[in-house]
Design brief:
Layout lengths: L4 E6 L6 H11 L4 E3 L18 H6 L2 E2 L12 H15 L5 E6 L2 H9 L9 H14 L2 H10 L1 H6 L5 H14 L17 E7 L3 H18 L1 H7 L15 H7 L5 H24 L4 E4 L4 H17 L3
Parallel strand pairs: 1-4, 1-5, 2-3, 2-4, 5-6
């Protein structure tokens, strides 16, 4: 096989990406690159739905448990590291899998990102002061006004990402969303994109069940151990912020559980909004293993026979 193929598997949280990708990677004697920005961090063991120890032993995974929450790591660094790793692994493999639900990180590998501009640090400081004094709602309204595309897909419970988008807009006059490349970067491999989806009510039921399982496994206790680090960007995420609110006395445990489930469902909806915009993605139910394998084989054959 002359051409190399990166099989991209995306979809909302709890849809079944991990299980399916491991089955496929075993078929192709391949490896998996995680594109889930929450799974990078070693300390986040329960709340990020990482592959378990058994799953990690079945197939080699990359970019899981490779960082500490106290390390700064952004999508630009991920793009460079992921492309370097994929290119290196293609020296001995014909097929690799990129799997995850972080749309911006998937985009970075597939299309590249423009270099983000330097921002005015005075603007960043003013935005942080506004956040402390007024809360997140006025900032969300401002982002919606100036960058509706990013507003629709950003984690609206993550103040760091809201501030990042606003500081870029206020420093440059250009929406944060425009820094996604208009012309995709050239990659030395073929990209085949697969999306997983299911009936919305079934997906939401799976999300609620997963959250119950995480709580049973000790999610509240894990968050309590990380409470002193809650200001870090890596912890400004669904699954931990809701528990920090409980630990800080903002509401009771029952309300924390309700918010965990609600915000996880909302996160899944934003993931789908992002991925449904990509017309290169072919969608399947996660149970359609044979159909997905047939699709991959057909695409690889077609592209192997075509001239560049």
């Amino acid at each position: 096989m002359d051409k190399k193929f990166l099989i991209v598997i995306v979809g909302p949280t709890a849809v079944g990406k991990t299980s399916l990708s491991i089955k496929l990677a075993k078929v192709y004697k391949s490896e998996i690159v995680s594109a889930d920005s929450r799974q990078f961090f070693r300390e986040l063991k329960i709340g990020t739905a990482k592959p378990n120890d058994s799953e990690l032993k079945q197939v080699r995974h990359h970019f899981i448990n490779n960082l500490s929450v106290e390390e700064f790591y952004d999508v630009g660094q991920y793009e460079r590291d992921a492309i370097s790793l994929i290119s290196n692994r293609f020296l001995s493999l014909d097929v690799m899998f990129l799997v995850g639900g972080s749309g911006l990180y998937v985009d970075a590998v597939c299309n590249g990102l423009d270099d983000f501009p330097e921002v005015n640090l005075d603007i960043r400081e003013r935005l942080n002061i506004q956040l402390n004094e007024e809360g997140l709602e006025p900032m969300l309204a401002r982002l919606k006004l100036h960058d509706l595309d990013y507003f629709k897909i950003v984690d609206q419970n993550n103040p760091q990402r809201i501030i990042r988008a606003l500081e870029v807009f206020l420093s440059t006059g250009k929406p944060f969303s425009t820094y996604r490349k208009a012309k995709p970067a050239h990659r030395e491999f073929e990209i085949i994109k697969i999306g997983l989806d299911m009936d919305r009510s079934q997906l939401y039921e799976r999300i609620d069940q997963r959250m119950d399982q995480m709580i049973e496994l000790g999610l509240f206790e894990e968050a309590e151990q990380l409470n002193h680090l809650q200001h870090l960007n890596a912890l400004q995420t669904v699954g931990y912020k809701e528990i920090f609110g409980f630990l800080n006395g903002a509401y009771d445990r029952e309300e924390a559980v309700r918010l965990l489930k609600r915000n996880s469902r909302r996160y899944a909806k934003r993931q789908l909004t992002w991925f449904k915009k990509d017309k290169e993605i072919t969608w399947f139910a996660p149970t359609q293993l044979e159909g997905i394998k047939e699709f991959i084989e057909t695409e690889m054959l077609k592209r192997s026979e075509s001239k560049d």
